[in-house]
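Quick note —
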Amino acid sequence: MCIMLSEAKLNGTKKDINKINMKSKIYLAALMIGLFFMLGCSAGLTAKTTEVKQPLNQVSELGTKKGNIPPDFAVITTEGKAVVLGNFIRDEKPVIIYFFATWCPYCHQDLTALSKVYKDYENNVSIIAISLDLNEGKDLLIEYKQKYPELQNVIFAPGTNDILTKYQVIRTTTKFAIGKDGKILYAGFGAFDEGQWKILLDALAK
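Predicted structure written out below.
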């Protein structure tokens, strides 16, 4: 009797094991099917993402580094006229944005050198000179501009917090040269000599 009972228990155990094995196989099959669909969806998503990103790589970034499209702004000149940077870019006209202060000796050095070469370029390259000293008003800039008779076609204007923030300007003699394609060709600071101004102006006038 004991032997028969043991065999019955053994047979029951085997059936339980078979059931467990069957459930494991079903679970494993379901897991593999789910994994297949997940991988398939991921592959499809990757392909779609690549298709979306590709044209975005060809779009120029807005910013203040070389190759960027510069942030737009508007200033009121010493003549009381509104000047918008975006108009130069739209018309494919090269322009230099120059940040200075009337009390800056390096700016005087910079503008003196520019005075000696700008006549040859003033019809092809515009310059917007913006004071980064927000205490300098229109009257002071008009007086300062008179020191450079060869630069009368340069646009002088008081600065604003908005412009200084957009361009992250903290130094005088900071320059942003923007080409006909509307992108920044050069960004830097420091006083130029005549030769350096000619190199930059030649590159813009091409």
